[in-house]
Amino acid sequence: MMSRFRHLISIEELSKGDVEYILSKADEFEDIAKKSFSDILKGKLLGNLFFEPSTRTRMSFETAMKRLGGEVINLNTAEISSIAKGETLADTIRVVSGYVDTIVIRHPKEGSAKLAAEFSEVPVINGGDGAGQHPTQTLLDLYTIWKEGDINDIRIALVGDLKYSRTVHSLIKALSLFNAEIYLVSPEALRLPIQFREELGNNVVEVDSLEDIIGEINVIYVTRIQKERFPDLDEYHRVAGSYRITRKMLENGEENLIVMHPLPRVDEISPEVDATAHAMYFKQAFYGVPVRMAILSEVMGYG
Amino acid sequence: MDKGLLIQKIKDGTVIDHIPPGKALFVLKILGIDENTREIVSFAMNVPSSKIGIKDIVKVENRVIGEEELNKIALIGRDVTINIVQNYDVVKKFKVKLPSEVIGVVKCPNPSCISNTSEPVSYRFVVVDGRLKCHYCGKIISKDVEKWIVKEDVKREKIK
Ligand SMILES: [Zn+2]
User: Fold this and answer.
1) Same fold flag, A11-133+287-299 and A135-285
2) Closest partner residue to A110 among B110, B118, B121, by Cβ?
3) Is there a single domain that holds both residue B106 and residue B89?
4) Contact A222, A259 (CB under 8 A)
5) Could you tell me which chain B residue has the CA closest to the CA of A93?
6) B110: CA distance to ligand 1 center in Å?
7) Are residues B136 and A89, on separate chains, in Cβ contact within 8 Å?
8) Contact B114/A114, CB-based, under 8 Å?
9) Which domain holds residue B37?
């Protein structure tokens, strides 16, 4: 069977049809992702090439591959730094793509996955390239909204670090495919860069506080505000504290309001929220598995 | 003013005209004209022009530069015109046109871009709405393109 795409490097390469196709495929895989196995990728080998650590993403891909009956070889950061000493990424890819059926690459340089795809004999999936792209994260975010909310009526507040968050930038690109209403809630210093605002056109509003719009939205997407972005700790604590999601705050929200977070969280979301029906972040992490199953089976031609 | 006094007519070669004032040196850079060049190259800066006020001109004698290479000059000026001269006659005249891809001429301004490493690839940009977008990292150069033109030695190093 022909794949809709050979590599998955960036969310921008996908059409709305591609995205919807992946979401519904992920839905079909969800039961297997939970506690079952399939053998559609039996005999296939996935190579996880992680040039920087990201245990969460690596485990999610590994789980997805194994639940579909495939095998995984992992090259961790330490091994890579010893074999790749002085070797170009291009050469590493040429060698590894001779061993495996698909490569997942995570690398600190932007554009590295694109380069890898050019030198690979097998499909390449971008597992995050520095500040660049992380398309499987974006697809699992969309899947969560699709599953738990209404993708045709997204009223979403993006909260926290909108300036540096790659997750938010990619999500914005994807949301522009759908007719989403977007509210931006961030400290002055961490506002969304102008290029992304341009892409959003008229469907975006900057607001000072989440409380002002809490009754009008059905998704809150929270990202981490990092200490390093602030000149001193006091300033960080003051700012971060004012963007914390609490149970009390959510009382004024719609019943079906969902709270998402790419994880790991530090204290952007109060633990008391976890027990509410609004908390979707752990389920969101689980959804990474069926979404990655859909992508893996697609690039290997078992759609 | 008699332009002939500023720059002599050439017998054979390429005349690059209507370069935005002050940008002639970047044209030389794009064409890879440096201390290793053997052809006679003359240029004038801030020449009065009836068409665009003032302009720069570059003349390269006894060398017909390929159209593909010349079109890269559109990076610094969209009104640049090329005259191919043979035996004192202009045998071909055209305006430069920005290609759909610009390879190996401009460096990616993003220091974390994979194209700024020792990987065996050239700098590569796609032209989107007249702006350059890095093929690898997606960085867009919206102004001061000339700042990012790569030097000849770097070009040789990258392409090897
Ligand atoms: Zn780049």
Assistant:
1) yes
2) B110
3) no
4) yes
5) B119
6) 6
7) no
8) yes
9) 13-95
Residue B8 lies in a domain: no
Q: Which of A10, A88, A131 sits opposite B112 (nearest CB)?
A: A131
* CATH no. of A135-285: 3.40.50.1370
Count of structural domains, chain B: 2
Q: How far is the CA of B108 from the centre of ligand 1 (A)?
A: 5
A contact test, residue of B103, B107, B114 with most A CBs within 10 A:
B114
Ordered by start, the domain boundaries in chain A are 11-133+287-299, 135-285
Span B2-53, pLDDT tens digits: 454 456 789 999 999 999 999 999 999 999 898 888 999 999 999 998 777 8
* CA A97/CA A116 separation, integer angstroms: 10
pTM: 0.91
Residues B94-131 pLDDT 10s? 999 999 999 999 999 999 999 999 999 999 999 998 89
Task: Give how far Cα A132 sits from Cα of A92, A115, B107, B128, Å.
Answer: 21, 13, 18, 19
Tens of pLDDT, residue by residue over A102-144, are 999 999 999 999 999 999 999 999 999 998 899 999 999 999 9
Superfamily of structural domain A11-133+287-299? Aspartate/ornithine carbamoyltransferase (3.40.50.1370)
A175-229 confidence digits (pLDDT tens): 988 889 999 999 998 999 987 887 777 788 999 999 999 999 999 999 998 888 8
Q: Ligand 1 mean position to A109 CA, how many Å?
A: 10
CB-based contact A11:A280 (threshold 8 Å): no
User: Which residue, B68, B95, B122, sits at the end of a domain?
Assistant: B95
The whole-angstrom distance between B136's CA and the closest CA on chain A is: 4
Closest CB from A12, A89, A110 relative to B119: A89
Cross-chain Cβ contact B113/A110 below 8 Å: yes
